[in-house]
Amino acid sequence: MKTAFIGLGAMGYPIAGHIAKKFETLVYNRTFAKAQAHAAEFGSRAVGLEQTAEAQVLFTCVPISKDVDELARQLLPHLRSGAVWVDHTSGEPALAKETAALLATKGVTYLDAPLSGGVAGAKNAKATVMVGGDKAAFERVKPVMETYAAKIVQVGPLGAGHAVKAVNNALLAVNLWALSEGMVALVQQGVDAGLALEVINASSGRSNVSENLFGSRVVSRAFPNTFALGLLAKDLGIANQVFQEAGTPAPLLRQLREFFEIAKLEIGSTDVDHTAVARLLERWAGVEIH
Ligand code: NDP
């Protein structure tokens, strides 16, 4: 099976590397040097955008759904009937449905298939994939996904993957913000941050944020940028679209979008790690979490 991967960013680069070890893989990246580096490192083939249309399975992993839709429009004249387009972008259900309808005019099946597990999960081939769309197309591409994912679940029809991802990331955001608030209060009262985390991680308030992010990124003061604040804020906007579409109450999770928009403004950059919101709480509290 010939595959193509478009978007060799923090997530796409290692994911496409795992695919290239098992399947013939064409790679395209807007900044072409990254595609050339990928080819040298993993034995993929760096190509121009049009050439990716040769593949039977095309992957995209770019920032937003609008980028995916633009790529689909550019590639449309070249695409082959019967191909499957797997979109690993954390995107918008509504726009993804429009892109899927466009691709269907050329006999190409689109699956929304966002990823979770972070850059570490992508590098270790332990990503989680949540898939929305056609079941037969999903079954065809599943063996390729198995090269980089530890958990692959078809969660529902077209758009369902994006919706689940948006809710997941709203839960990430609420935990990150809430733990930051709690930790500045504790540190201000003279509690050692490392000891507080140790206790929380053995108690009922623990989360992925407390177990896997806060110690290594905030308390360590490292803040490595593997998942940008701007991308998480974007996901909260998508979550609000999901709540709006559902018409269900979400007073807490809807609010998060405002919190993270304020964080972007106050921090003055979107291109910092999402855990930088802890720094904002620190600034407001006048204490440093350590
Ligand atoms: P990065 O910013 O690291 O990479 C983005 C990639 O998309 C780069 O290859 C970039 O090319 C390319 N790109 C950007 N804009 C365009 C465009 N208009 N047309 C074509 N290519 C474009 O992002 P991530 O890899 O972190 O994230 C990608 C997606 O995965 C996002 O939707 C994100 O929310 C999601 N995600 C990220 C996770 C993470 O931990 N980082 C975890 C789970 C999901 P160039 O090299 O030229 O800049």
Write structural notes for this entry.
The protein is an alpha/beta fold and about 290 residues long. Helix content is about 55%, strand content about 15%. It is built from twelve helices and nine strands. It has helices at about 10-20, 30-40, 65-75, 95-105, 120-125, 135-145, 160-190, 195-200, 210-220, 230-245, 250-265, 275-285, and strands at about 1-5, 25-30, 45, 55-60, 85, 110, 115, 125-130, 150-155. A six-stranded parallel beta sheet has the order 3-2-1-4-5-6, sandwiched between helices. Helix 1 packs parallel to helix 2 (about 30-40), helix 8 (about 195-200) packs antiparallel against helix 9 and helix 10 packs antiparallel against helix 11 (about 250-265). The radius of gyration is 20 Å and the shape is globular. The structure holds NADPH dihydro-nicotinamide-adenine-dinucleotide phosphate. NADPH dihydro-nicotinamide-adenine-dinucleotide phosphate binds next to strand 7 and helix 5.
